[in-house]
Amino acid sequence: MTAVTVTVLLLVIGGFVGVAIVLQLKEQARIEKLRKIASINNQIRQVRRYLDDLPPQYQPKDMRLWLFSRMVTLYDELIQFEPNSALQRRKSHLEQEMTEFQSSKQKRRAKPINDELLIMELKRLLESFHFFIKQSVKEKTLNSDTGARYEGLLLFYKYKLNADFHAYLGRQAFLTGKMDAALSSYKEALSQLAPVKDNPETLSSIKQLEGIIDEIEKELDAKREAEETTVEDEESSINDEWDKFMDDATFKEKKHF
User: Fold this and answer.
1) What are the DSSP calls for 135-192, one per residue?
2) Which domains are delineated in the chain?
3) What span, in angstroms and rounded, lies between the C-alpha atoms of 68 and 74?
4) What is the C-alpha to C-alpha distance for residues 209 and 149, in angstroms, rounded to an integer?
5) Where do the H-state alpha helices sit in the chain?
6) Which of 28, 102, 118, 189 is within CB 3.0–4.6 Å of 167 for a Cys-Cys bond?
7) Neighbours of 108 (CB within 10 A)
């Protein structure tokens, strides 16, 4: 085998190896692209779930606006990999939804926390959101000060969930006239906030519950006083009747003799 032949063979082999390497790199790039697309889509679904499933009372306006903006950014990243009209429309609809929410002056209606299974589901969602916030701070898509404030809010919401549930039970008992049960439920709601009583966000909730408890206790005291007065009046009436009976009997006895 001549030197020329060897050289040609080496070039051919090198060419095949080079083509194989290029194809492998292209395949790796394709797989990496698909992985990033899947990751972004997962994040979009995740943020959408936070927007849709977290009750309004656990989602302040600035937090909700941040979630909207985060989702818009994710769509921008996705469009870089998959530029198409469908994604552009979704992004436009999302931006419109964000603008309408930002300009709206109407307060969003709180969702009743009336079921223990709902509490379990929301706790899992809050834990997931907490992790998402920590990751966002780490990735610098959320500044550390705002992230720390949101983490404090989520800690408060974790306990407020249980407090809201017992407050709901208290209100239902109050509306049906079961004042003792209502008082017990509202006191339990207050006790649920004890672990976060030093949290600035907790103060207004504690004052509200204390005010309700105070009103119910006053009403119960007034009811007891009224009942005691009624009993005293009944006893007094019975005594008056007895005294009258005795006077009549004595009078008749004297008259007889």
Assistant:
1) HHHHTTSS-HHHHHHHHHHHHHHHHHHHHHHHHHHHHHHHHTT-HHHHHHHHHHHHHH
2) 8-108 (no CATH), 112-234 (1.25.40)
3) 10
4) 24
5) 3-53, 61-81, 85-103, 116-138, 144-175, 179-192, 202-256
6) 189
7) 13
pLDDT tens profile 12-33: 666 666 666 666 667 676 778 8
Q: What angle do CA 165, 168, 173 make, to 5 degrees?
A: 130
Task: Report yes or no: 169 and 199 within 8 Å, Cβ to Cβ.
Answer: no
Digit-coded pLDDT (tens) for 87-116: 999 999 999 999 999 999 888 899 999 999
Determine phi and psi for 193, rounding to 5 degrees.
Answer: -90, -5
Q: Distance of CA 35 to CAs 40, 48, 155, 156, Å?
A: 9, 20, 33, 36
Nearest-CA neighbor of 186 among 211, 214, 158, 167? Answer: 167
Question: Rounded distance, CA 186 to CA 192, Å?
Answer: 10
> How far apart are alpha carbons 239 and 72 in whole angstroms?
82
- Report how far residue 167's alpha carbon sits from residue 186's, in angstroms, rounded to the nearest whole number: 5
Q: What is the pLDDT of residues 174-203, one digit of tens each?
A: 999 999 999 999 999 999 999 998 888 899
Burial degree of 119 (CB within 10 A; 0-12, 13-18, 19+): middle
| Mean pLDDT over the full length of the chain | 85
